[in-house]
Inverse folding.
């Protein structure tokens, strides 16, 4: 039955996965994407891997119970000799057949390079199953002894070659010819040593016995073939054990265990003690049975998902690796020692040394010498290559611009590259032996130590390197910004450092430029907002004394227009310097853009809010006075004023809201007369909301027809007759509220909407004037337009001519009142435009005369027909003697220039008498009539005149009866709804 030892399963590792259906994952090493076989055998062996650790334990227990049950049955003789023969022959055949089917199924669905190995293992197990089946045919079916040789021997002898080739497929293949030669020599050293030992102990006796009994050559060769094949197989296992791949380790170990059990049973069977007394069904068969089932179990049950990831993520280094490497290196020498022991055994026992032992021993020694020579040559080549790499590495380190330092676990520097002299300004020898902490800035030392401790505590596989940036002391005593890449080295550290001082300086400069105004170098809006956010948070979050000041330079645009942008920039630089000098050390002064500045005044924790407001108001007033002082620019003095808005922090206020409140207060200061300080009040925000809502409704008012056109009569002061009408727009909103131009034009900054309203006013006024003329009311209409609107491209010169032509309005029936309050308007362009309008028969009035800064210049250059006195001159003309003289002088100028005059805002009879006495020809105001709708206006024109105080004057100053005029001022008195 020695041949049955070869029927046991020989297996080794390969890459396997559970056979349950799942998607193929090419990135997982060992995943073979095996689909589920239809066989229940495959499902049985795959159950443990799909069900997890608990199911795997159940499978192992079940396997142990089956093998143990067979061993118990064999130990008690199976109860009968017939059953013992059946279990000893066909039982082993069935176990080998299970191994063959299991390996074939796994190889059938596997998709890796180890697939041929499992096919070979399946073939080997199939040969073993066939040999045991033939053996059982003779013993059980035929009831005769198995002949020698027999067909069973053919199957058993064909078992070892496929298993040996399969082991070669599973082994890690050498990459050089020397490696292949060493592999062959190692196999021969092991095999030769085992052959020497086996021949000395048993095989020589077997060979002499067969020769003495006169056995045939075939039978003698057969007696030696089984142990020799086992020796070759064991040699391959031992030679390839330390060369196996690092995947599916559990499957490999299981297969090796099965192989070791089989070889052990073979060794026991070939011993003289058991060979003579062995018969089928004994306890020795349990070893071969267990070996076959372990081979069947290895690819399925021993293949864990964790094993597949061995090469994906290297396992932590353990002490077993050096031991395994040492055993692999010592294996050939141990084999030679075994061979020597075999020869010494024969010598000590006084036996004649067999020629086979001598020949084999000589070949083992020769192989050992050849292997040693190859290893010596290989070591010399490796030494030379190592020396070249070391020189290359040394040249790279010494020639590198980065500084490489090695620090011991104690923090002492053991090596510093020569680049330290150029980077740190210190020789490398001066740094060697010094503490690493001694060259790090004290402020950075704690952070560096914390990072190093964290890095060393982390697993090397998860965090192989880290980066640290700190300051190192240079040879001149300065601190350099150094960036270091840190690696582990024998418990210490390797630091690859480079000087990044210029980069840090550049980053700081870029950060400064991003947060500061390039002209004044004050903090910009972004940094100021961040400072406000910091002031409102942290320990100052509950301090209501924190205040934000918004500052706008009044008159700066005029300086820019008059002196140029360069002078304006110089003024801003000086203003920024004054602002910076006027705030306290802990406060922040910033430029928000243009001529707008801001200041953050930090609170002092005082609980007296009234005193705090007074203090901040004093600071704001001091800033206003400092900014209002004359500026020396280009050899002359320039003056601007400052409007300042102040807002105090409140509970839970955001930086955006606080800055918005200060901005609203600043605009209130500008609206209240400029050059003043205003504190924020909640009603300012309500006013802004109201104006925003009003402006939003104004955008759709024209489209929805909410605007109406009214006319206010312009009365001849001498006779009371209506000389002209002034067109005025009124907005009656959907809520029924009537707004005057002073209200709805003040709330919008939409220039496009204002232009659209101006075009509508002009077109409606001309159209209604033409309708009145056709009805027999020949009275001029005055439309008020700003000088800027007259020069707007949205209203070209041809549009006025086309409008007059389309409606057939006669010459002199349209009067345009021009306001002169915009300093940005070019008098040259305005003069050309007005001259062109006069050629069309349009008469020109200068509106608001006496209030504009360029009134005299406009009177000198522009083609004016009528002067319209400003309401401010008319209101106090009776009460104020000074104002009386000014108004009288202006009227004399108009009279001397041959111009007609109209007084706006004539509301009481006393004003009529005073103005008529001064020579004013026409008046417009509530003393006669307010603005009228078209129906009431025509009734007034039918009547033709208004009563005048003191009775009519016989000789009117103006003739012609119609005066083309502009609309009244923006602050008319309300009129009853029409």
């Amino acid at each position: 039955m020695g041949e049955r030892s070869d029927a046991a399963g020989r297996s080794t590792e390969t890459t396997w996965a559970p056979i349950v259906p799942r998607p193929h994952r090419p990135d997982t090493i060992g995943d073979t994407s095996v689909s589920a076989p239809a066989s229940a055998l495959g499902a049985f062996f795959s159950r443990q891997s799909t069900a997890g650790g608990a199911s795997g334990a159940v499978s192992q227990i079940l396997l142990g119970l089956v093998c143990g049950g067979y061993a118990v049955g064999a130990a008690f003789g199976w109860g009968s000799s017939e059953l013992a023969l059946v279990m000893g022959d066909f039982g082993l055949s069935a176990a080998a057949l299970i191994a063959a089917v299991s390996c074939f199924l796994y190889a059938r669905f596997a998709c890796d390079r180890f697939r041929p190995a499992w096919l070979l293992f399946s073939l080997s197990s199939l040969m073993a199953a066939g040999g045991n089946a033939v053996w059982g045919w003779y013993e059980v079916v035929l009831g005769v002894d198995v002949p020698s040789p027999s067909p069973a021997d053919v199957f058993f002898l064909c078992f070892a070659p496929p298993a040996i080739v399969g082991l070669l497929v599973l082994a890690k293949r050498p990459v050089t010819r020397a490696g292949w030669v060493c592999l062959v020599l190692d196999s021969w050293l092991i095999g030769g040593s085992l052959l020497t030992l086996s021949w000395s102990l048993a095989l020589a006796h077997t060979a002499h016995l067969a020769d003495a009994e006169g056995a045939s050559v075939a039978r003698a060769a057969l007696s030696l073939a089984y142990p020799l094949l086992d020796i070759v197989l064991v040699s391959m296992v031992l030679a390839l054990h330390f060369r196996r791949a690092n995947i599916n380790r559990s499957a490999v170990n299981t297969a090796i265990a099965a192989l070791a059990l089989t070889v052990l049973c073979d060794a026991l069977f070939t011993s003289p003690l058991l060979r003579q007394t062995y018969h089928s069904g004994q306890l020795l068969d349990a070893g071969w049975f267990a070996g076959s089932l372990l081979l069947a179990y290895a690819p399925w049950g021993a293949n864990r998902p964790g094993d597949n990831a061995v090469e994906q993520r290297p396992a932590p280094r353990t002490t077993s690796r050096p031991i395994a490497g040492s055993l692999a290196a010592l294996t050939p020498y141990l084999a030679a020692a075994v061979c020597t022991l075999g020869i010494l055994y024969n010598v000590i026992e006084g036996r004649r040394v067999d020629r086979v032992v001598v020949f084999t021993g000589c070949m083992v020694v020769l192989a050992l010498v050849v292997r040693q020579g190859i290893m010596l040559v290989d070591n010399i080549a490796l030494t030379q290559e190592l020396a070249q790499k070391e020189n290359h590495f040394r040249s790279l380190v010494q020639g590198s611009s980065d500084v490489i330092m090695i620090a011991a676990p104690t923090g002492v520097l053991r090596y510093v590259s020569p680049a330290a002299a150029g980077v740190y300004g210190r020789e490398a020898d001066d740094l060697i032996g010094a503490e690493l902490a001694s060259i790090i800035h004290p402020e950075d030392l704690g952070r560096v130590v914390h990072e190093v401790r964290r890095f060393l505590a982390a697993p090397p596989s998860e965090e192989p390197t880290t980066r640290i940036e700190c300051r190192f002391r240079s040879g001149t005593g300065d601190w350099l910004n150094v960036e270091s890449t840190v690696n582990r080295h024998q418990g210490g550290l390797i630091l690859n450092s480079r000087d990044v001082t210029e980069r840090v300086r550049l980053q700081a400069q870029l950060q400064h430029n991003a947060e500061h105004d390039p002209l004044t170098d004050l903090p910009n809006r972004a940094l100021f907002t961040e400072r406000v956010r910091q002031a409102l948070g942290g320990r100052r979050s509950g301090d209501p004394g924190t205040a934000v000041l918004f500052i706008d330079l009044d008159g700066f645009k005029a300086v820019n227009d008059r002196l140029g942008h360069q002078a304006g920039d110089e003024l801003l630089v000086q203003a920024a310097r004054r602002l910076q000098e006027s705030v306290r050390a802990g406060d922040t002064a910033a430029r928000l853009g243009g001529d707008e500045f801001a200041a953050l005044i930090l609170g002092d924790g005082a609980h007296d809010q009234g005193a705090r407001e007074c203090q901040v108001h004093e600071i704001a007033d001091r800033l206003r006075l400092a900014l209002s002082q004359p500026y020396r620019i280009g050899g002359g003095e320039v003056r601007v004023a400052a409007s300042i808005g102040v807002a105090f922090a409140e509970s839970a206020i955001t930086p955006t809201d606080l800055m918005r409140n200060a901005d609203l207060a600043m605009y209130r200061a500008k609206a209240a007369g400029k050059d003043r300080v205003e504190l924020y009040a909640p009603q300012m925000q309500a006013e802004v909301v109201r104006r925003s809502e009003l402006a939003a409704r104004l955008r759709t008012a024209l489209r929805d027809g909410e605007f109406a056109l009214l006319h206010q009569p312009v009365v001849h002061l001498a006779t009371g007759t209506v000389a002209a009408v002034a067109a005025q727009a009124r907005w009656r909103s959907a809520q029924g509220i009537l707004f005057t131009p002073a209200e709805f034009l003040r709330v919008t900054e939409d220039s496009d909407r204002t232009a659209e309203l101006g075009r509508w006013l002009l077109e409606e006024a001309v159209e209604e004037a033409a309708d009145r003329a056709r009805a027999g009311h020949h009275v001029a209409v005055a439309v008020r337009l700003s000088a800027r609107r007259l020069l707007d491209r949205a209203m070209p010169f041809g549009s006025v001519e086309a409008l007059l032509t389309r409606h057939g309005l006669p010459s002199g029936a349209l009067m345009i009142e021009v306001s002169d309050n915009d300093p940005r308007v070019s008098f040259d362009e305005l003069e050309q435009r007005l001259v062109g309008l006069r050629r069309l028969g349009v008469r020109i009035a200068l509106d608001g005369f006496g209030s504009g800064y360029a009134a005299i210049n406009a009177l000198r250059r522009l083609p004016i027909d009528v002067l319209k006195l400003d309401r401010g001159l008319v209101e106090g003309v009776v009460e104020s003697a000074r104002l009386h003289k000014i108004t009288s002088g202006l009227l004399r100028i108009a009279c001397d220039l041959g111009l007609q005059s109209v007084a706006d805002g004539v509301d009481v009879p006393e004003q009529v008498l005073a103005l008529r006495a001064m020579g004013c020809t026409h008046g417009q105001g509530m003393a006669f009539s307010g603005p009228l709708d078209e129906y009431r206006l025509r009734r007034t024109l039918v009547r033709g005149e208004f009563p005048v105080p003191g009775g009519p004057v016989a000789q009117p100053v103006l003739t012609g009866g119609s005066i083309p005029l502009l609309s009244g001022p923006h602050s008319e008195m309300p009129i009853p709804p029409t």
Summary: Residues 37 and 43 are 7 Å apart (CA to CA). The two ends are 131 Å apart (CA to CA). The chain is about 55% helix and 15% strand. The first strand starts at residue 403 and ends at 407.
